[in-house]
């Protein structure tokens, strides 16, 4: 992507249009441009993944000229922003976040934050997911995101982007003074068991479930995003839409060459 001195920016998230992270992101982006459009869910849609609203209508409430609250998923928001709400000029970059909580390792497969960036990449738009790592019942270190988001976005705006790629950024769960640096990382993979259904019984003795989040220890390896988070470093992970396991192609061809 060629550097644009005043880029058009589409901001999306999954925490909802009034979440502190998206308000902070817009504030940071105003240091680069005033051509900012915010299209975000009207309420939290964490864990929505790359889902679309296919079986019911999507309602939009326009807050002002460039802020739109959508009764839909983050992916819906990306589509509406690009095709409907920004007019004839597409965004130069899509920024999704800043999410309250990590989007590390396999979180990408569940994350509405990451999925909005994935949709942007599918539409041929340079796209970035940004998250502030956080754990329950602890402070959210928004100042860490505030400190590092601007220089990260500035460098990404100046880079050439390959079609079918997006970037996943995580700011560490620590105060600014404890950040150990910025790392370009690979995607990690935790051991199985991060999400588990927990049974409950309501007051009418009808069973229901909560999905419990409990990240197991392990998965941090040299150079990956989990290790960066563990070491209080900002992680920047270049990612791609092509999920083919290219290193397995030869084995699979050998296994199936006589079938049919």
From TrEMBL:
CC cofactor: Mg(2+); a divalent metal cation
Binding positions (a divalent metal cation): 14-15, 46, 99
Annotated catalysed reactions: a ribonucleoside 5'-phosphate + H2O = a ribonucleoside + phosphate
Survival protein SurE-like phosphatase/nucleotidase domain boundaries: 9-190
EC number: 3.1.3.5
GO molecular-function terms, A-Z: 3'-nucleotidase activity; 5'-nucleotidase activity; exopolyphosphatase activity; metal ion binding; nucleotide binding
Pfam families per UniProt: SurE (PF01975)
UniProt-annotated location(s): Cytoplasm
Top EC class of this enzyme: hydrolase
GO CC term, one of those recorded: cytoplasm
UniProt keywords, alphabetically: Cytoplasm, Hydrolase, Metal-binding, Nucleotide-binding
SUPFAM superfamilies in alphabetical order: SurE-like
Cofactor binding note: Binds 1 divalent metal cation per subunit.
InterPro entries hit by this protein: SurE, SurE-like_Pase/nucleotidase, SurE-like_sf
HAMAP family recorded: SurE (MF_00060)
UniProt xrefs under PANTHER family: 5'-NUCLEOTIDASE SURE, 5'_3'-NUCLEOTIDASE SURE
Summary of the function given for this chain in its UniProt record: Nucleotidase that shows phosphatase activity on nucleoside 5'-monophosphates.
Protein family per UniProt: Belongs to the SurE nucleotidase family.
Protein name listed in UniProt: 5'-nucleotidase SurE
């Amino acid at each position: 992507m060629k550097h644009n001195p005043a880029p058009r920016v589409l901001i999306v998230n999954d925490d909802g249009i009034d979440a502190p992270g998206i308000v902070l992101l817009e504030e940071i982006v105003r240091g680069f441009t005033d051509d900012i459009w915010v299209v975000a869910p009207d309420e939290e849609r964490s864990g929505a993944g790359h889902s679309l609203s296919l079986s019911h209508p999507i309602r939009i409430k326009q807050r002002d000229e460039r802020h739109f609250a959508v009764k839909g998923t983050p992916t819906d928001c990306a589509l509406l922003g690009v095709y409907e709400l920004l007019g004839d000029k597409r965004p130069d970059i899509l920024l999704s976040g800043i999410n309250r909580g990590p989007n590390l390792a396999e979180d990408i497969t569940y994350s509405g934050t990451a999925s909005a960036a994935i949709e942007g990449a599918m539409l041929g738009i340079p796209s970035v997911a940004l998250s502030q790592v956080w754990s329950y019942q602890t402070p959210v270190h928004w100042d860490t995101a505030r400190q590092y988001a601007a220089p990260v976005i500035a460098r990404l705006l100046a880079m050439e982007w390959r079609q079918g790629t997006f970037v996943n950024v995580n700011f560490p769960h620590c105060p600014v003074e404890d950040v150990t640096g910025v790392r370009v990382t690979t995607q990690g993979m935790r051991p199985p068991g991060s999400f588990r259904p927990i049974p409950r019984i309501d007051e009418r003795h009808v069973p229901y479930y909560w999905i419990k989040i409990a990240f197991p220890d392990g998965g941090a390896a040299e150079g990956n995003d989990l290790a960066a988070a563990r070491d209080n470093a900002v992680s920047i992970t270049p990612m791609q839409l092509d999920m083919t396991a290219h290193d397995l192609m030869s084995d699979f061809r050998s296994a199936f060459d006589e079938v049919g």
